Amino acid sequence: GDSKLCRFEQTMPISSYLLAIVVGRLESRTLADNVHVWAEPSVVDKAAYEFAETEKYLKAAEELCGEYLWKVYDLVILPPSFPYGGMENPCLTFVTPTLLAGDRSAVDVVIHEISHSWTGNLVSCSSWADFWLNEGFTMFVQRKILGRLHGDETRHFSAIDGWKSLQDCITNAFPAGSPLTALVPDLTEVDPDDAFSSVPYEKGHTFLWYLEELLGGPAVFEPFLRAYLSKFSKCSLTTSQFQDFLTQYFTDQKTKLDTIDWDAWLHAPGMPPYTPKFNDELAHVCSELQQKWESWQEGSDCPSSSSDLFSLSCQQTVEFLEQVYLQEKPTPLFKLEKMAQLYSMWDKKNCEVRLRWLRICIRSRWEAAVEPALSFVTEQGRMKFLRPIYRELYKWEGAVRERAIKHFLDTESSMMHVAVQMVRHDLCLDKQ
Fold first, then answer.
1. 112 annotated as ligand-binding
2. Helices 132-150 and 54-65: angle between axes, nearest 10 degrees
3. CB of 185 closer than 8 Å to CB of 179
4. Which of 45, 72, 306, 321 has the most other CB atoms within 10 Å of its CB?
5. Of 88, 113, 322, 352, which residue is the catalytic one?
């Protein structure tokens, strides 16, 4: 009849957690000989535009990590309820539709998932306690690719953002001193989903940044990276195996290796025992804009203009908003109203920008932000965006907190299970 039989053979060994099947009314667009994007008909052309440069990212990754062994690299756009930015299923990366900003400003996630083709898929962690071997390495590779494509200052700028997200996570997502903020946490009788956070990503990245700086820079460490990927290709390994391989590879640098406090890096909770020296050239522009807003006094002429953001990248806009959010005191409402007017903040499409703006507004207890915030957590189910918004709303005691809880209970049936469990925790519903 009308049925069609397709056969797919995966010739590469993969970890069981990487096996996934997607079913739906999907169409594809060809982006390169071995690169395609799949999506529902209403979305597929938007996706093809958004990810048109995927082959360029893939080639940059090969230059750093070695040959791409998986033959094809395809992407599929999942429904909005998908709880992650992406999932690196071999040959077919699953991605969230929140990346479809319309201006290719959110494609860092694709570079991250491409990097997983080596760090995570080719070389996998042997347990979730060693998850940083997947995600820390992948952040490290992702930012190196960004540096090669856009300049090293862009790599540093991305790392600054990662450092701040790590600080935010350790301060706000866990109790002080939580053992789950260790790079290699003890997950005995712990659901790994409860430990999921930016710690393995950003603390892991910082550890590799530190090791590269300590052992001689990229000229020395990038060959080590390729040797590591070659040695453990198609294998799962533990942190101890990584430590042994690093020590064996750099036998001529014993003095430097002896200075590494492995216990502090791997097992101590909290922030890393080392703060990188970042090039803050791109972040400095954001700081100047934030300071301009901070210094503005009510009753005086506003020193800002609608052109402020024209020269900033989307990532710099995110950084500017992050700095506004992180100020000691909430931003006064007269400033938020002016910012919204000048920058058309309520019209922004990029979800990273929307997240920061909504957090700023909720922290300042601006009633006008409540409805947009609830709409934001309804239209998509990505935990990176859901959880911070729900946590901010929960801090707003009284009617807004109750409204947020009711909204969650009314909409949880449309969310994926892991997102429901995490938000229940954030709203303290798991204690009832």
1. yes
2. 110
3. yes
4. 321
5. 113
Contact call for residues 93 and 84 (beta carbons, < 8 A): no
407 is in an annotated binding site: no
**Could you report how far apart the first and last alpha carbons of the chain are, in Å?**
54
The radius of gyration of the chain from alpha carbons, rounded to an integer in Å, stands at 22
Q: Is the pLDDT of residue 208 over 80?
A: yes
8 Å CB contact between 30 and 52: no
pTM of the model: 0.91
Rounded CA-CA distance 321/287 in Å is 10
Amino acid at 353: V
139 alpha carbon, distance to own chain's centre: 9
Catalytic residue among 57, 73, 84, 201: 201
**Four-CA torsion 268, 271, 272, 276, nearest 10 degrees:** 180
Share of the chain above pLDDT 90, in %: 94
Name the token pair of 257.
């290796």
Give CB contacts under 8 A, 24+ apart, made by 171-176.
Answer: 172/391, 173/197, 173/387
Respond yes or no: is residue 228 known to be catalytic.
no
Phi and psi at 345, nearest 5°, equal: -65, -30
Domains by residue range for the chain, with CATH: 16-117 (3.30.2010.30), 124-267 (1.10.390.10), 282-431 (1.25.40.320)
